[in-house]
Every structure is written in C-alpha cells, then in structure tokens.
C-alpha cells in the first residue's frame, strides 16, 4: 500500500474499489466525516470541531470488506 490506497483486500486478496459512505440529512446527502475528540453538547444539538476530514472508503469486490480512511 505504498500509494496510500489499498489495491488488494487484506482479508481475501480481492480487488478494492474506492467510494464514500453517505450520510442522509434532511433532504440532502453528504459524505461522512471524521472529527478528532468528542463533540460538545449544546441545547440545539452537538457542536463539532471546525477541522474535520472526509472519509474515503474502499470495498472489496469479492467479500464486501470495507476499509475506511480519513486523510
């Protein structure tokens, strides 16, 4: 994995396809994100840190195994 993306599945050695995990939200779809630490609870919901990273996911075409990265 020298290129930073998995070419082969670590479970069954099948080929991996790049994609994203989708979050559904009030009539729109967004790419899932990762944030360091825990969110702060507020009366209107949760406050997240400003710096978040989009999650990229890879799926094995043979066994369905998912491997995710927040680069």
Structure notes:
The protein has 71 residues and is an all-beta fold. It has one domain. Strands 1-8-9 form a 3-stranded antiparallel β-sheet, with no helix packed on it. The radius of gyration is 15 Å and the shape is elongated. The model has no long low-confidence stretch (mean pLDDT 88).
Helices and strands, with pairings:
Layout: E1 16-20, E2 22-25, E3 28-31, E4 33-35, E5 40-42, E6 45-47, E7 52-54, E8 56-60, E9 66-69
Antiparallel strand pairs: 1-8, 2-3, 4-7, 5-6, 8-9
Enumerate the spans where pLDDT stays under 50 for 5 or more consecutive residues.
none
Calculate the mean pLDDT score and round it.
Answer: 88
Q: What value does the Rg take, in angstroms?
A: 15 Å
Total beta strands: 9
Computed structural class: mainly beta
- β-strand percent reads over 45%
Can you summarize the main beta sheet? 3 strands, antiparallel
Succession of helices and strands: EEEEEEEEE
What's the tally of helices? Answer: 0
The coarse silhouette is elongated
**Fraction of residues in H or I helices:** under 10%
| Strand order in the sheet with the most strands | 1-8-9
């Amino acid at each position: 994995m020298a290129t930073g993306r998995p070419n082969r599945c670590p479970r069954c050695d099948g080929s991996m396809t790049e994609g994203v995990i989708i979050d559904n939200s009030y009539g729109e779809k967004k790419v899932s994100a990762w944030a360091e630490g825990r969110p702060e609870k507020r009366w209107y919901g949760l406050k997240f840190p400003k710096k978040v990273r989009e999650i990229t996911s890879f799926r094995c075409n043979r066994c369905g195994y998912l491997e995710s990265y927040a680069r």
